[in-house]
Amino acid sequence: MTKRSHRILILPAALFTIFAAVLVIAQRPAPFRDAIPAGSRVQYKTFQSKLLNRELRYGVYLPPSYETSNRTYPVLYFLHGLNENEMRWSTRGETDLMLDRMIGEGKIGEFIVAIPYAANSFYTNVRGGGEPWEDVIVKEFIPMVESTYRVNATRAARGVSGISMGGYGALKIAMKRPELFGSVSSHSAALIPDFDSTTVTGRRLEALRALFDRIYGISQDLTYWNANNPLELAKDIKRLQGLKIYFDCGTEDDYGFFVGHRVLDELLTKASYPHEARLYPGDHGWEYARQHTSQSMLFHWKAFSGK
Asked: Which of 132, 142, 156, 195 has the greatest number of C-beta atoms within 10 Å?
């Protein structure tokens, strides 16, 4: 034990409480130091998945007025990234604090956010009858959320978003099932035009090949990968009608996902499909995403509001 930590332990209880409170405030990024409206809650719970035959964890953000009203709310499903979980949206992204602040400032209205844990599944049913993670999200998690919480269960009031692997999952699921979602957004989505190293320059992408082979069987052929690739799904423009789309990526993304970002932007632009696509300076991960989640949350609120 260091001398410094020893001194902290012998501080009077009241002084220690004050010191701890100041430390927590000091550790928050500058945008969140001001007072934010009280009342919102982030809960962590489990639900029983029959498809996987086990309990799965999830997080849910309930907006400030949820406990004091009887009304229903739009819902945003947020999908976490690779090697993450249902808590990182809050603990790393601090998106719950950002939402509280935006609500308090009148920039957005209130909505529920539900975050399922999905391991490193890429939100995909494993080829050949393996774990059906896409079905878990669509056929189990969404119905559970919308029967447990006061959700406005209409297409216009339902959105999906995600970061990295979750950004891929959000775009993929929304494009495969556009009848379910009125809006979709992603940050640094894992968009891969092909597996040619001259196209995908990310230095870490090679490490994903074994995972992709387990899920999609890419060493055999790319048929199943293409059937779940947003860059292929986006070519069916008529199917996407009514789905509002936003995506952004860092220009220094070390997986090289900005390449796929540009391809998706070009596909939608060529088809004259309305969308928001943005490239910003930055790398891959929450340090980048924290700077831009306010834009995707505003995007979804406008979609929920019919704007």
From this structure: 142
